[in-house]
Design brief:
With 84 residues, the chain is an alpha+beta fold. It has 4 helices and 3 strands. The chain has helices at residues 17-24, 30-37, 41-48, 68-77; strands spanning 27-28, 58-60, 63-67. Strands 1-3-2 form a 3-stranded antiparallel sheet. A hairpin with a 2-residue loop joins strand 2 (58-60) and strand 3 (63-67).
């Protein structure tokens, strides 16, 4: 009996850095992101389809993904401080 071994195809492109980051970071779907931010899903959809979206999101394989680190940065940038 002869056993064949499969060799790895070295001609395949390496995954991009952003793809690798997407796999290792925490991504939220729209309902989860709405809950995380304390806003409605409709607000996220409206923002996403506007000419200049404010809330950061990514599309991966056609799916909308919100990354928690980017949402945290967004929240920090839009935080209103209390005057002393």
């Amino acid at each position: 009996m002869m056993v064949q071994t499969m060799q790895a195809n070295t001609n395949l492109p390496k995954p991009s850095k952003s793809f690798h980051e997407a796999l290792t970071r925490r991504g939220l779907n729209t309902p989860e992101a709405a809950n995380y931010l304390g806003v409605s899903e409709a607000l996220l959809r409206k923002d996403r389809t506007s000419r200049s979206p404010q809330i950061p999101f990514s599309k991966i394989c056609g799916r909308v993904v919100y990354f928690t680190d980017r949402l945290d940065d967004f929240i920090s940038r839009h935080e209103v401080g209390v005057a002393a």
